[in-house]
Design brief:
The chain has 140 residues and is α+β, with helices and mostly antiparallel strands. It is built from two helices and eleven strands. The protein has two domains: 17-46; 50-135, no CATH class. The chain has helices at residues 22-42, 46-49, and strands at 8-10, 18-20, 50-53, 55-60, 66-72, 78-84, 88-96, 107-113, 122-125, 130-132, 134-135.
């Protein structure tokens, strides 16, 4: 049967020593690849298929819950997550890295609605762990 547990066979060049048969080596390689794949899933596959984007600038008013973020997107799909505290608004933008090779740095715009007005809270770009200045939007 092909899927039997690997067995060792003796060689004529090395009496008393054994090596894995070609079939056993193949089974060992397949088991190793499957174990590595399971480890990648266990270590959070998302972190291997996404890359953070830096927030280039932001617009908003202290009394408003609306915030406009400008960031480099490489024309890729992305997700935006916002975490609000009393002192900070932390923003993380993740790009779908499956297609990133050499890409043009194209600015993208994302409008987010905060749970509470921005007030005097600091906007933090989580990808750089840096404060981002929030500019007043231009009058329309």
């Amino acid at each position: 049967m092909w899927l039997q547990w690997p067995r060792r066979v003796a060689t004529t060049s090395e009496p008393g020593r054994s090596r894995l048969s070609p079939r056993a080596r193949l089974v060992t390689v397949i088991v190793g690849v499957l174990a590595a794949a399971g480890l990648m899933v266990a270590l959070n596959w998302t972190s291997l298929t996404t890359t953070p984007a830096s927030v280039l600038s932001a617009e908003g008013r202290p009394e408003s819950r609306d915030l406009t973020l400008y960031f480099g997107s490489c024309l890729l799909d992305y997700t935006v997550s916002v975490d609000e505290t009393d002192d900070e608004v932390r923003v993380l933008i993740l790009l779908d890295a499956a297609r990133i090779n050499a890409c043009p740095e194209i600015a993208a715009i994302e409008n987010v609605v905060l749970k509470e007005p921005l007030g005097d809270r600091t906007l933090i770009d989580v990808s750089r762990d840096a404060a981002v200045p929030v500019n007043e939007p231009l009058p329309r």
